[in-house]
Specification:
This is VOC family protein. This protein is of the alpha/beta class. It is built from 2 helices and 8 strands; from the N terminus they run βαββββαβββ. The protein has helices at about 15-25, 70-80; strands spanning about 10-15, 30-35, 40, 50-55, 65-70, 105, 115-120, 125-130. Strand 3 (about 40) and strand 4 form a beta hairpin.
Length: about 130
């Protein structure tokens, strides 16, 4: 049914200007003004994410966007230099998973990819994930 259809994801934030700075300046993504004052974030694979302001925004309790990288540790270091905190979960939060290291990276094993989580200014959870296990 949707095999030839374009698709996009969307999520809310509490402040569109702060989101524009974070996704554009801090993360270095291609952020464009969209319809009705919302944002279009263009990703490297020609996909896009639609970010909209919601006055009663409540951050999702799950990861809304994953960024694939060849080197999670290097990417985490770059995020930390840009002021992004990557250790957002304690070991108790991830009881059924391997513990995070001091940088907030969950090191992969044969069943799990290496991953580190962080939040945007609105509290939405994002992640960097290893390109391969």
């Amino acid at each position: 049914m949707f095999t030839s259809s374009d698709a996009f994801s969307s999520f809310s934030v509490d402040d569109i200007d702060t989101a524009k700075r974070f996704y554009g300046d801090t993360l270095g993504l291609d952020v464009r003004d969209g319809m009705m004052g919302n944002l279009e974030v263009r990703l490297g694979n020609s996909a896009q994410v639609f970010i909209y302001a919601k006055p009663d925004h409540v951050p999702a309790t799950f990861t809304v966007l994953n960024f694939v990288t060849d080197d999670v540790e290097k990417t985490v270091d770059e995020l930390n230099v840009r002021g992004v905190t990557t250790k957002i979960y304690g070991d108790d939060d991830l009881a059924d998973m391997p513990p995070n290291d001091a940088k907030g990276i969950m090191r992969g094993d044969e069943n799990r990819a290496e991953i580190a989580w962080f939040t945007d200014p609105a509290g939405n959870v994002l992640a960097v994930v290893a390109a391969s296990v």
